[in-house]
Amino acid sequence: MKSITIKGSQRESVGKASTKALRNAGKVPCVLYGGDKPLHFSADEIAFKDLVYTPNAHTVVISLEKGGKHNAILQDIQFHPVSDQILHIDFYQLFDDKEVTMEIPVRKKGNSPGVIAGGVLRINQRKLKVKALPANLPDYIDADVSGLEIGNKLYVTSLVSEDYKIMHPDNTVVCQVRVSRAAMKAAQDAAKEEKAATKAAAPAAAAPKAE
User: Fold this and answer.
1) Measured between alpha carbons, how far is residue 194 from residues 39, 42, 117, 158, 188 in Å?
2) pLDDT for the residue 210
3) CA atoms of 1 and 59, how far apart (whole Å)
4) Which of 31, 90, 164, 207 is the most buried (most CB within 10 A)?
5) In which domain, by residue range, is 20 found?
């Protein structure tokens, strides 16, 4: 999996006043969990641009001025409800021999015969939660739709891998091919016309023959 480096400074004070001062200076207060004790640090808000505002998944190298380097993943993020400013980020430290759970984006692969025939592909799960050793975390999970006809569904059981475990129930639908609204409306209109024609023909068929 691709990695992004975040350069920051370890925080000596973690009170409300110092946290407010950091935000006013364009920095984000952060905490790294998973080690012997939580590690508090801060970094420029712009440093998180490629980590937060992207559909892709990344691991993170947290590089601190006096605290060395730490491999981690983003665990939780808080935004201001009005301005969308990043208020706080939690990270979880990675260890080579310890499995971690992370959300991985789903990537469509192949062409669906059902879509070619006029159906519509619906993506139900754009990300899947997986558990794996850090070295086995994928950049994305391929969802092969080349066998999906209209009405077919692709379940997570079709995406199993020896490298990671998908943390969703077996009946979770990743994507499916549905009849398009245009095709459905055309079928409904055709059914109404057929019904109307049958109804109009019925009296004529029942009328007595003139002598």
Assistant:
1) 72, 69, 24, 41, 10
2) 54
3) 7
4) 164
5) 3-94
